[in-house]
Structures are given as C-alpha cells and as structure tokens.
Amino acid sequence: MKVRNGFVSNSSSSSFIMLIPENFNVDEFDFSPHQDKFDDTNEENVKRTFKKMVDKGYLYADEDWKSYYPLREIFSEFVIGQVETGPDEGAIQVLNKKEVEKIRKLLAI
Predict the structure, then answer these.
(1) pTM of the model
(2) What is the DSSP annotation of 22-70?
(3) Which phi and psi angles does 54 have, rounded to 5°?
(4) Chain centre to alpha carbon of residue 23
C-alpha cells in the first residue's frame, strides 16, 4: 500500500482523506474559478454531493462519479492524505474531531 500527501488528479485507484474546517460552508464557497471542472455536472450537484459526503463521513466514487471527480479536484486543499486502493475503488473519507485527536496523539508519540 502506498500513502501520499497531496493530490493526484485523474486517479480512480486512489482514496483521499479530507479534513474540512469546522466553519466551512459549501453554500458560501466561490465556485467561479472552478467552472472548467464541471464537465458532466454542475455547481448544485457538487454542493449536494459535498453535503452528503460530510453527513455520511465518506463518499465512494461509484456513488456519484459525475460529482465525485470535480468535488475531489475543487476541494483538493482539504486533502491531507491519499491511499492507493486498486482499480475503480476510489473514495473520500472525511475525518471527524475524534479521528483528528487520535492522529494528533499518535503523532505526539
């Protein structure tokens, strides 16, 4: 298994770990610089998919692939890790406060 920091575009064999700021509101996000990423979807679909991902804590690529890829690219600043998972198994995992605290404790060791 390979683990990377950062973002690699167009890789369906990668899963991403995202850390979203607590005060982030996707409805207030400026999508105007990202219009080129909406090939098969639109801003409203990406917002809806983002909210679903945050509520569930994860999003699999095959759940909504038309919004998954733009979402992953537009919000790449929130990606804190990447794991190679195999062909067409991409996913995004959102960390919650408890998981962040676990990581902090592990890094302090």
Answers:
(1) 0.75
(2) TT--GGG---GGGGGG-SSS-HHHHHHHHHHHHHHTEEETTTSHHHHHH
(3) -65, -45
(4) 17
